[in-house]
Amino acid sequence: MRYTAHMSRVFPSLGLIAAVAAVGAAVGQPPSDPIVVKAIAEVEQSSKLVPADRVVSGDAVIYTLEVRNTAATTVPRPTVTYPVPEHMTYTPDSAVGPGTDVTYSVDAGRSFDTPENLKVQEPGGQVRAATAVDYTHIRWQLKNALKGNSVAFVRFRAQVK
Which of 63, 70, 148, 155 has the most CB atoms lying inside 10 A of its own CB? Predict the structure, then answer.
């Protein structure tokens, strides 16, 4: 099963970015889908994490995705896809999740692969290896089933452009 998080963003004045909340929706799945994805955006201040209510260019934001199975039944190996926020740049090697395989997209989420296999085409037609700056989406494939009424957490870091 694949779940894609849809994001709602609030952009306060002066280009500041507020915390992001997301609810996962399965592509082609009925509205009663048991998987709900909630994104929590935080920044580190004084050695602790606080809500990313106001961030400026260059700030590092930590996104924690709470992947919750709201059903009483087990969901076999769910896949969670999350876009790199538009005004952010993914931080290399920061996507983690216990018991997950992580892949990335450079084409707005149409295809996914490991970093060493990703390529992008330059405006002049030349093809080059993709870098973290090129990533548009991150995908976590849970290696195990997600039991009913349980939660898994995945995380990544990004920097405000």
Answer: 63
